[in-house]
Every structure is written in C-alpha cells, then in structure tokens.
Design a protein that fits this description.
The protein has a domain at 24-70. The chain has one helix and four strands; from the N terminus they run E-E-E-E-H. It has one helix spanning 51-62; strands at residues 12-13, 24-28, 34-38, 46-49. The longest helix has 12 residues, at 51-62.
Amino acid sequence: MTIVDLAGANWFKSSHSGSQSDCVEVAWLTDGRVGVRDSKDTSGPALMFAPGEWDAFANELRAGGFGSRP
C-alpha cells in the first residue's frame, strides 16, 4: 500500500449535490490521479484512480450505469 499526502489537495463536490451532506468529494491530484473521499469524513481514507480508470467510471455514470438516476 502506498501512502500519499493529500493535505494540499483541492477537494470539491459535484454541482449536482446541492446542499446535501451525503456526498463524495473529488480532487484532481498533481500526479494525474483522481482522489475520491467521503465528505462527512474528510480526514478518513480516500480512494485514488488512474486517469483512465476515472474516465471509465465517469462515462459509466453518464450512461446510466451503476443504478444511477439520469
């Protein structure tokens, strides 16, 4: 397991989340990876995706996959 310091990451929520507190936050990391974390536990663990993995995930969501709503 690799530990990455995410203290300087610029985390943001989707504009579709509105004022809801049950959200994920995303950060574009300097090495090209994408970080994802729970907005309720900002000091907790984060997932990291390679750019291609993130693109595949986002494209599947846009296509209505994973049980997402349009």
